[in-house]
């Protein structure tokens, strides 16, 4: 039991050490893949992923809107409309982040 406790403490200390960023580092990537700032340039892979996220959210919002228009049960219609609004918010948030990044370049 005591050995398990010591092992748990050691793992916790290793986790905390990995989470701390080195002193004196300004921006960019630190130790274990944690970024303090986004990169100044988007890679092709990241761009494709962002495009996919925008497409997924737009498609989900359109489908939810379509189903909400054709739904006759008020409670379900409200739930589907809320899902539509959520996907619209996600789409707009991603777009806003991208537009904010453009102003810095």
TrEMBL record:
<feature type="region of interest" description="Disordered">
    <location>
        <begin position="1"/>
        <end position="39"/>
    </location>
</feature>
<feature type="compositionally biased region" description="Low complexity">
    <location>
        <begin position="1"/>
        <end position="24"/>
    </location>
</feature>
<protein>
    <recommendedName>
        <fullName>Spore coat protein</fullName>
    </recommendedName>
</protein>
């Amino acid at each position: 039991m005591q050995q398990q406790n010591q092992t748990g403490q050691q793992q916790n200390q290793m986790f905390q050490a990995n989470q701390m960023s080195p002193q004196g580092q300004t921006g960019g990537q630190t130790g274990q893949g944690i970024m303090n700032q986004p990169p100044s340039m988007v890679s092709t892979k990241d761009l494709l992923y962002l495009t996919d996220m925008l497409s997924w959210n737009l498609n989900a919002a359109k489908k939810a809107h379509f189903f909400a228009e054709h739904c006759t049960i008020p409670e379900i219609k409200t739930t589907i409309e809320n899902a539509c609004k959520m996907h619209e918010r996600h789409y707009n948030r991603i777009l806003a982040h991208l537009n904010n990044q453009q102003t810095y370049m």
